[in-house]
Amino acid sequence: MEKQWEILALEFDQCVQDSRSDEEIAAGIVRESPLWLRISNFFQRHLSVLRHLPPGQLILWKIEHWGNSTTFDRVPASPDAIPGAYTKELLDLGHRIHPYTFTERNVSLLHEDIPLLGELDFGIVPVAQKVPVEGVSRATIRDRLNLDAADTLLGVGGMLHPAKGIDEIAVWFLRNVPDPRTHLLCCVIPFEGDETEEMVRQRWERAAGVDSSDRIHIHVGKYRQWEWMCSFYQAIDVMLVNSVSDSWGRMLSEALGFGVPTLARRAECATNDIVPDLLLVDGFADLSQEQFHTLVDDARERAPGIAQYVNTHYSVPVVEKKFLEMLRVRTPSEELAEFDRLAADPHSRRLVQSMIDR
Q: For the whole model, what pTM was predicted?
C-alpha cells in the first residue's frame, strides 16, 4: 500500500483533506513507526490525531509568528484554536515535544504570547531558498507582457490580505507613477473567496480614482508555483515588499537571492531580520517619484552583496545541514544509531528537502 504521509521519521502535514478518522490516521502513523514526526503551528487535527498516538513520540513542532506590527494573525492558528490552551494540551499528551522556528525574533514573540513555550528549548532553522528552475528566463514573462528591453517592470507579490500591503502599492503606482515605460506586475493569492483578476483591478482603480490600470499586470495564482516564480523574479527590475506580517518572508528572500533590487517595509516581523543591509522604507503610499528613484538606485548598489549573503546562508545544503543537526542533538542517545541510518537514506533525505523550503 502506498504511504499516505511524508514521514522520514519526519513529516506529518496538515492532513485537513484526509477522509480517514483520526484513529485510522494515528494507526497509519504507528505502522510507519517514524522516529521523528513533524507538526505545524496550531492545527486542530494535528492535536486530535496525536491524542490517539502512544505517548513518547518524538515531535518536532514548527511554530511561526507573523510579527507584532499588525493586529492580524499575531500567532497562526487553525480556526477556533486558542494557542495557550493548545500548547498546554499538547504538552500534557506525554509526547516528547521539541519546537523550532525560523528566527530569534519569532522565538521572542512566541515566548511573549505563549508563556508555556518559555519552558521549551527552541531550535532555529531558516527557510531554504528554492533551487532555480532551469529553462526559464527574463524574457519568459516580459515577452508575454509586450515589454521592451528599456521598460521598467516593478514586482510585488503575496496574499491579498491587508497585512501584506499589496493594495497600497497598486494604488500608489496608479497615482504616482505616470511613466508609460514603467509597469507593475502583481503576483497575488486571493485571501477570501474566488476573487478574480478583474475584481482586484476594479478595486484598485476605484481606490486610486483612475479609469484605467493597463500598466498593472495581475497574475492570480496559488502557493508553490515555483517555475512561474522563477520567471517572475528574473523578469522584474525592482521588488517591492510592503508586508508587515511574516514569519519568514519567502518572496523577500527569494527575490533577494535572485539579485533583484528590493525595497522592504520597515516592520517588526521576520522580513526585517533575515538579511543585513536591506533597504527599509516606512511605507509606499507617500513616496514621490524622486524619492522612489533615489531608493531604487541605493537598492541596486546593495543587491549583489545581499544576494551573496542569501545564497550563502540559506542555500538548500546549508539549511538541510542545520535541520539535521537540530534533530540529531534532540534525538535520545539510544535512538542515535537509527537516526543516523535514516539520515543517510536517500529517500529520507528527499523528505527532509521537501520540508526545509516551507
A: 0.91
